[in-house]
Amino acid sequence: MPTSSRRLAVSAATAVALVAVTALPLAASDNWPSFRGNGADGAGTGSPPATWNVETGEYILFRVPVPGLGHSSPVIWEDRLFLTTAVPDGGEASLKVGLYGDGTPVDGEPAQRFQVLAFDKRSGKLLWQHTAFHGTPAIKRHMKASHTNSTPATDGNVLVAFFGSEGLHAYDLDGNPLWHRQFGVLDSGPYDFPTYEWGFASSPIVHDGRVIVQVDILSDSFVAVLDANTGEDIWRKAREEVATWSTPAVFPRGDGSKQVVLNGYRHIGGYDLDTGEELWRLEGGGDIPVPTPIRAGDGPILITNAHGRLKPIYAIDPDAAGTLDPDHDAMVWFHERLGNYMQTPLVVGELAYFCYDNGVVTVVDWTTGERLTQKRLGRGASGFSASAVAAGGRIYFNSEVGDVYVIEPGAELNEIAVNELGETLMATPAISDGVIYFRARRHLVAVGSGS
Questions:
Q1: Are 451 and 438 in contact (CB under 8 A)?
Q2: What is the CATH number of the domain that holds 272?
Q3: How confident is the model over 361-370, as pLDDT tens digits?
Q4: Looking at the 3D structure of the chain, how many domains does it have?
Q5: How many other C-beta atoms are found inside a 10 Å radius of the C-beta of residue 178?
Q6: Please, are residues 138 and 185 in contact by the beta-carbon 8 Å criterion?
Q7: Which letter, b or e, does each residue of 400-411 get, where b requires 16 or more Cβ atoms within 10 Å of its Cβ?
Q8: Contact at 8 Å (CB) between 357 and 341?
């Protein structure tokens, strides 16, 4: 049972393919517009395969090279797929993955080309690319990170790509620049080791003609809502917050209004989407917040973080108001030590899945907060940074070495298959029309039946 007993939860309810290219179906497209799809819920449409083989090409619709280094995820609108990347001037960017505690940043890197790429999602053909910035990055990166960690976002009219200190850039879907904003040097290094520089990672989202950005940095943190057509501020609120790496989310409230919800350490909170009014706040938890808040069905908002002493899971009533704590009435349930560090959780049905960076998955009944299962994927030899996604009655957990664990939804965590991509995987996949798209270390890989 949860650490703090609560009332029952709210109601449950360019590029050349390296393997033969098979045309994807021409059926109407389902969009995956921002990090982890719609509302960051990780839920795709159709039924991607349970097994595939990169070497033989089985169920590999295309595998095309992507230049540079980037951990941003693919986003999809209709028949187009968008990525960002940083291409160094000469040589290849270094990358160190795995389970280790060294936070030393990468030193002595050359100038980079911060690029936005558009592909045809059916064939993998490169449609256009645009260099948003060319120069030496203002901030160094963590040795496991990239200079393009932030996933782009689109609403079908505007595509926005956030490169941290190198600016927020907006395009139309044909690659024509619309506007850009500079917010100064954005240092998201750890607050307790300010000499470390780890790069920027929070992704923008586009909602109701507005662009929402969460800028939690070492000084002068803020959240802002911008006009998607012009890039001008609609509102901006200062935050007394340490550096974080989480992406904002938008959820409805019972009165029909919408709120921007942010993960944090000193300030987890909800803000009115239209006005920026602070609706509720919560302090405490892990001191390096990364996962994005998600909504469990029509139930609570789930927020987790981990680092340092605590690894909480908070299940918060969407109509919360005021200053919260684990004993507040708006806290539907709470666990002090079951949360995770890097991955955004996944909800399928009435179960929520929390995967820690060593591959240990905790399954919780989100309607009650009861812990049902805790089980390790693999042998604990590789890290897990990319978040899980789901479609067609399957969950896809993704390890850093490129092993993709296909799991049957349920408390038992029954393993269906393990598939190898053959290269490092740090970016969360996207799913559209029964195809799962992996942005791996050097390639964009589309896995589907092609029928």
A1: no
A2: 2.130.10.10
A3: 999 999 999 9
A4: 1
A5: 16
A6: yes
A7: bbbbbbbbebee
A8: yes
List, for residues 58-104, the tens digit of each pLDDT value: 999 999 999 999 999 999 999 999 999 999 999 999 999 999 989 99
| Distance in angstroms (rounded) separating the CA atoms of residues 163 and 202 | 9
211-248 pLDDT, tens digit per residue, is 999 999 999 999 999 999 999 999 999 999 999 999 99
Cα distances (Å, whole numbers) of residue 367 to 327, 332, 360: 18, 9, 22
Q: How far is CA 167 from CA 34, 65, 156, 185, 324, in A?
A: 18, 26, 21, 9, 34
Give domain status of residue 22, yes or no: no
Answer whether residue 21 is part of any domain: no
Record the pTM. Answer: 0.94
DSSP state at residue 310 = B
The pLDDT score that the predictor gives to residue 450 is: 79
Quote the longest CA-to-CA distance of the chain: 59
Q: What is the CA radius of gyration of the chain?
A: 20
Give me the domain span that covers residue 398: 38-447
Give 343-392 pLDDT, tens digit per residue.
Answer: 999 999 999 999 999 999 999 999 999 999 999 999 888 999 999 999 99
Residue 280 clears pLDDT 90, i.e. is over it: yes
What is the per-residue DSSP string for 22-39? -PPP-SPP--B-STTSGG
Would you say residue 287 lies in a domain? yes
The Cβ of residue 83 has, within 10 Å, a number of other Cβ atoms equal to 26
Whether 3 maps to a domain, the answer reads: no
Q: What number of H helices and E strands is found in the chain?
A: 0, 33
Task: Read off the tokens for 278.
Answer: 């602070």
Q: Residue 307 has what DSSP assignment?
A: B
